[in-house]
């Protein structure tokens, strides 16, 4: 019976760790998505300021 109880505890712990990993993966994907958006905004701003600088020299 002790073996069964121990096995159940291990299964519960495994499930808990699996949920944590899924949560961590979701957070990592969210961070990557936000990072990509920030990169795109930075690039757009660089082009915008480059165009403003070119227009002001004309």
Automatic annotation (TrEMBL):
Name the Gene Ontology biological process terms: regulation of sporulation
Q: Which SUPFAM superfamilies match?
A: BAS1536-like (SSF140500)
- From the Swiss-Prot or TrEMBL record, give the protein name: Spo0E like sporulation regulatory protein
The scientific name of the source species is Anaerobacterium chartisolvens
């Amino acid at each position: 019976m002790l073996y069964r109880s121990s096995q159940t505890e291990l299964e519960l712990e495994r499930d808990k760790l699996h949920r944590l990993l899924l949560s961590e993966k979701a957070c990592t994907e969210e961070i990557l998505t936000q990072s990509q958006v920030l990169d795109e905004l930075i690039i757009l701003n660089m082009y915008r300021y480059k165009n403003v600088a070119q227009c002001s020299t004309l």
